């Protein structure tokens, strides 16, 4: 069985765009409206000469426990719990949000191995973008631009080292 990596984060941070960059597919729904990916979505990343792994895209965790958003969040949590590694995706343009802090607290409680992925750093100073999230205290943090495919190679190396 292939190892699995789950993409978790609040809506609109670029999880589905990262899914596409990793799986080189247009499978995941990318949309400006939050919450477009409501179910778990599976793809396979096959990096050249490296170990293949399953990528699990999830709907955003929007903070509400009721209704559709709640169901989506429960799916995301289930995906994270089943994954060998969680990529906690945040938005480098918007900086830290209260919802990020909530998700981080939950991920810490789940005890799953985790990498922090600071996305949307195209046109930004990636060191400054990472510094914004330093207070999360996640040792392994990567600045990427999923839409511009920047930083994906070094993220893949880190993932390989953790699987
Ligand atoms: P999700 O809700 O977390 O799955 O986010 P999406 O992948 O659907 O992306 C939400 C929005 O952010 C879309 O308009 C994307 O085009 C945009 N986006 C995603 N990744 C990047 C990135 O690396 N840079 C920029 N500038 N925009 C991005
Ligand atoms: Mg999505």
TrEMBL record:
EngA-type G domain: residues covered: 3-163
Transmembrane annotation, as ranges: none
Domain of life: Bacteria
Residues binding GTP 1, per UniProt: 9-16, 57-61, 119-122
Complex formation: Associates with the 50S ribosomal subunit.
Function: GTPase that plays an essential role in the late steps of ribosome biogenesis.
The protein's name: GTPase Der
Taxonomic path: Bacteria, Pseudomonadati, Pseudomonadota, Gammaproteobacteria, Lysobacterales
């Amino acid at each position: 069985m292939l190892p699995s990596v789950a993409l978790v984060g609040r809506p609109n941070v670029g999880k589905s765009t990262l899914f596409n960059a990793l799986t080189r597919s247009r499978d995941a729904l990318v949309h400006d409206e939050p919450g477009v990916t409501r179910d778990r979505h599976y793809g396979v990343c096959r990096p050249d000469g490296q170990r293949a792994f399953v990528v699990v895209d999830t709907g955003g965790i929007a903070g509400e426990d009721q209704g559709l958003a709640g169901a989506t969040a429960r799916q995301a949590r289930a995906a994270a719990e089943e994954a060998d590694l969680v990529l906690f995706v945040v938005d480098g343009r918007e900086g830290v949000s209260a919802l990020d802090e909530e998700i981080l607290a939950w991920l810490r409680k789940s005890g799953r191995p985790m990498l922090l992925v600071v996305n949307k750093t195209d046109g930004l100073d990636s060191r400054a973008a990472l510094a914004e999230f330093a207070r999360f205290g996640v040792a392994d943090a990567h600045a990427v631009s999923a839409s511009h495919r920047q930083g994906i190679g070094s993220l893949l190396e880190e993932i390989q080292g953790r699987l």
